[in-house]
Design goal:
With 229 residues, the chain is α/β, with parallel strands linked by helices. The protein contains ten helices and five strands, in the order βαβαβαβαβαααααα. Helix 7 packs across helix 9 and helix 8 crosses helix 9. The two termini are 34 Å apart. Pfam families: GerE (PF00196).
């Protein structure tokens, strides 16, 4: 069975990724720019993704899917929730930077956030992390940890765990973190594994409404699951 580009997915190695983005350049360009990634489907709406039912290791999802003036399509947290419920590990790929929106989308089931201004190497690394069922830690999630901890919404992080979390969110390598903090590289990685597990447990066990209450946030344009446009 061939994908929409006429290729045989079974004949190609690599992480299987579906791209949902209303930008033609993103849909057409990413398959040529990400080493080790096999784009099995590239569509402009969540509805097309759900209808195609591709086998994926990760879904790369933009949050705003009405750039061509379309209405009645799912986007934001509603899109994330639909993709996650269909059983796909979801990585948000967006220009959106509002923390309340990104936090809400993580609570809806996304496994991480990558901004479109970041280097392609960061995107490729994030895809690999999500495909391995790990949470991609970003500055948005550091903000989530700070807010939720103050309200008791997340298990507490130790000072060392917070240091390593913030450093990884800025893209600092484990070797550099270890040297700066005078600890072993393996120790730094183990601290990060504990942090990732705490995030994963929290995001898996709490609903968007729970998270909004914990953080004191109200519904927003992309945060509200009940809206489709």
């Amino acid at each position: 069975m061939r994908d929409r580009r006429g290729r045989d997915p079974g004949a190609q190695p690599g992480t299987r990724v579906a791209v949902v983005d209303d930008d033609t350049v993103i849909r057409e360009g990413l398959p040529h720019l990400l080493p080790g990634v096999r784009v099995v489907l590239a569509v402009s709406s969540v509805e097309e993704l759900l209808a195609a039912r591709p086998e994926t290791d990760a879904v790369l999802l933009d949050l705003v899917l009405t750039g061509t003036g379309r209405t009645g399509v799912r986007q934001g947290a509603a899109a994330v929730e639909a993709v996650a419920r269909a059983g796909h590990r979801t990585l948000i790929y967006t220009n959106e930077r509002r923390r309340e929106v990104l936090v809400g989308c993580m609570a809806a089931g996304a496994r991480g956030v990558v901004h479109k201004a970041e280097p392609l190497a960061a995107l490729a690394a994030a895809v690999a992390e999500v495909a391995a069922d790990r949470v991609v830690i970003t500055q948005a999630l550091v903000g989530l940890a700070e807010l939720a901890e103050r309200r008791g919404g997340l298990p507490s992080l130790t000072p060392r765990q917070r240091e390593i979390l913030s450093a990884r969110a800025r893209g600092e390598a484990f070797r550099s973190i270890a040297e700066r903090l005078f600890i072993g590289k393996k120790t730094a990685e183990e601290h990060m594994a504990v942090v990732t597990a705490k995030f994963a447990d929290f995001l898996r066990d709490h609903s968007p409404a729970d998270l909004e209450r914990e953080l004191g946030l109200g519904p927003g344009d992309l945060l509200d699951h009940r809206r489709l446009n």
